[in-house]
Design a protein that fits this description.
five-stranded antiparallel beta sheet; 1 helix; binds fe (ii) ion; 33 strands; 439 residues; six-stranded antiparallel beta sheet; metal-binding
Length: 439
């Protein structure tokens, strides 16, 4: 029997945890890049078929850059209770929030490095990727935590949420810059949906209440969510402070895994951009990411486009439009501008990356070469913080035939390749990473 897509080619898991030192570099690494690039992704245990790309155990890959050299690479499974064999539910039948895969992203906040997955608690890891254990903000976090929290670049607050198939379906949380969870608030929604991401602006939270719903009948098939034509697609705007309710806007049915950014304008309107799937794109991609996906499927995440919504709380009106027709995923930006006006987005596009200039509408591409699959491009600003795109893009590029991987560093201004670091083993294409500068 042919292996499903998520166990094949550049998505196939690796069997070993390895360490490599003083890695070969082609080109020149910027000497200012002193820190660690960590990336998370699913990596089922050898011989295991989790039934969906999203449900393999989390594995972190790390590359240490210092003074123009690539000092080390290492990869480690996130040693969760689930990896140790714990069942997903406690004795009371409710989900065990520590028995999760922690496979989606990795952030540093409040001095802790956290591996994240949206259906459970974060797992804290060391700066050498050793697992310290599930982290619940000193007992204050009693829901799951999204893998897409948003750190406000001015206050340092971490805004996030937890969603659940069981009530409460959605809970908003805010942690201070030093990592104290100081606010948790239930948000009423129409039902249990898969809510992968959200957005913030300077003063608001933006919710994506979209028609991909929990379906108990699918529980044994990997990811128990499916498109539902009867669920109304809505985007909600909620003030961060105070107790004002969410203002909801009905939008054209679509699904969003990943937000680009959001901002508010002088008239109080909220402008949101994100990579949007229409019904057909979602259904096809979702099938390709699950057990039905064959290795012949072209690209499990490549059927969505950058899209923009303008929400006007005064008039109650919403307008939306595609910003481009390229098929993209994994949008990123200069995160010092989260929630603020920002001009550039970076996204994975086919065998390369695209840089969008939202002011001019232009798109510039980086081609990684035939048969190459770049992952999410993390933007690292230069220390003196010049222009918005003054910095570098870091991405792990993997060969689609499974022959190997490299960490590629691009100049974010023009997408020229500055350096490529050969990694000592293949890195399965995964989800999200972050640059953790030395502090
Ligand atoms: Fe994601």
């Amino acid at each position: 029997m042919t292996a499903p897509l998520y166990l094949s080619g550049h998505l196939a898991p690796v069997a070993e945890e390895v360490d490599g030192h003083d890695l070969p570099v082609t080109g020149a690494l910027p000497p200012e890049l002193n820190g660690r690039y960590f990336r998370n992704g699913p990596n089922p245990s050898p011989g295991q078929d989790p039934g969906h790309w999203f449900t393999g155990h989390g594995m972190l890959h790390g590359i240490r850059l210092h003074a123009g050299r690539a000092r080390w690479y290492r990869n480690r499974w996130v040693r969760t209770a689930a990896l140790a064999g714990a069942p997903g539910r406690g004795p009371d039948g409710r989900p065990d929030l520590s028995a999760v895969t922690a496979n989606t992203s990795v952030i540093r906040h409040g001095g802790r490095i956290l591996a994240l997955v949206e259906n459970g608690l974060p797992y804290e890891v060391s700066d050498e990727l050793d697992t310290r254990g599930a982290y619940d903000f000193d007992g204050r976090l009693t829901t799951a935590m999204t893998a897409h929290p948003k750190e406000d670049p001015v206050t340092g607050d971490l805004h996030f949420f937890g969603y659940s198939a069981l009530a409460p379906f959605l809970t908003y949380h805010r942690a201070t810059a030093n990592g104290a969870l100081v606010e948790s608030r239930e948000i009423p929604v129409g039902g249990p949906t898969m809510m992968h991401d959200f957005a913030i602006t300077e003063r608001h939270v933006v919710w994506l209440d979209l028609p991909v719903v929990f379906d108990r009948a699918l529980l044994r098939k990997g990811m128990p969510y499916r498109w539902d034509d009867t669920y109304r697609a809505r985007i909600g705007v909620m003030p961060q402070r105070g107790s004002a309710p969410v203002r909801w806007f009905e939008v054209d049915p679509g699904y969003v895994f990943h937000v680009g950014n959001a901002r508010e304008d002088a008239e109080g309107r909220i402008i949101l951009d994100a990579v949007r799937y229409n019904r057909e794109a979602f259904v096809n991609s979702w099938a390709a990411m699950g057990a039905a996906g064959s290795p012949r499927a072209q690209n499990a995440t490549g059927h969505a486009q950058l899209h923009q919504w303008t929400l006007d709380p005064r008039s109650g009106r919403v307008s939306e439009q595609p910003l481009d027709d390229r098929r993209v995923e994994f949008p990123t930006l200069n995160e010092t501008l989260v929630g603020r006006p920002s001009r550039y987005r970076y996204a994975v596009h086919g065998d390369g990356l695209v840089k969008y200039d939202l002011h001019s509408g232009a798109g510039r591409c980086y081609d990684a070469g035939p048969g190459q699959a770049p992952g999410e491009a993390v933007f690292v600003p230069t220390e003196d913080g010049g222009a918005e795109d003054d910095g570098w893009l870091l991405t792990i590029v993997s060969d689609r035939a499974g022959r190997g991987s490299a960490l590629v560093v691009l100049d974010a201004t023009d997408l020229t390749r500055m350096a490529s670091v050969d990694l000592p083993q293949r890195v399965p294409a995964g989800f999200h990473g972050n640059w953790l500068p030395d502090i």
